[in-house]
Amino acid sequence: MPDIEELIRQAMLAGKFGDLPGKGKPLHLGDNPHANPEWRLAYHLLQSNGFVLPWIEQRHDIEQEFAAACGNLARSWDWRNSIEAKKFPADQITNEWHQALESFSNQVQHLNQRVRDYNLQAPAVDFQMPAINVQREIERLTAAPPSDRL
User: Fold this and answer.
1) Secondary structure class of 42 (helix, strand, coil)
2) 42 is a domain residue
């Protein structure tokens, strides 16, 4: 059986898609074709005035808060590494790093509660978020070079 992706690629190379209607024009993706027609105007008004569904806004807030927590921990890690080169007392460096780890762990614990609440509101399993694994995130943030962390 032929691979569909390969067939599409061959058709593209042969120029089979070159004369499709609307070529070069932006797609109009504003209206949901599956929305109840009686509610279409209401959805359009909400969307055009910047309103989003509460669960979508909640997900966005969780993602932003998680990114900020990761950024704080990454800066603490960079500070820790730069301080070690200046020969500061090891116990002071260790204490500061442990405080940063504890703060990050507390933030992730709070975020995981918000993720659980969000998952109860998400309309389908496909939209749910996995819980954040603190240890995996710490390892990721401390193992990667600064440009690859976030």
Assistant:
1) helix
2) no
**Domain total for the chain?**
1
Work out the angle at residue 136's Cα, subtended by the Cα atoms of residues 133 and 141, and round it to the nearest 5 degrees.
120
pLDDT digits (tens, 9 = 90+) for 65-103: 999 999 999 999 998 888 765 777 888 888 999 999 999
Task: List the one residue out of 4, 143, 142 whose CA is nearest residue 73.
Answer: 142
In degrees rounded to 5, what are phi and psi of residue 117?
Answer: -65, -45
With beta carbons less than 8 A apart as the criterion, state whether 104 and 138 touch.
Answer: yes
137 within some domain = yes
The Cα–Cα gap between 102 and 108 comes to: 10
Determine the Cα–Cα distance for residues 76 and 91; give it in Å rounded to an integer.
15
Query: Would 132 be classed as within a structural domain?
Result: yes
The answer to whether residue 33 sits within a structural domain is no
